[in-house]
Design goal:
The chain is mainly alpha-helical. Helix content is 30%, strand content 0%.
Length: 53
């Protein structure tokens, strides 16, 4: 058990969580933000059959 600390009950604890800061930079979306994005980009998912002839 290398790099594992034991708790008071002598059970291994989880390794410490690390962060590279991306979560702070990325922020987050509300449900309304996600729905608006999906609505505004729906046309980008449409396949144009004429292009594939």
């Amino acid at each position: 058990m290398r790099d594992t600390q034991l708790t008071e009950s002598n059970q291994p604890s989880e390794p410490p969580k690390t962060s590279n800061g991306i979560a702070e930079l990325a922020g987050g979306w509300t449900l309304a933000d996600a729905e608006e994005f999906e609505h505004n980009t729906a046309e980008l998912s449409r396949i144009d059959p004429e292009m594939w002839r």
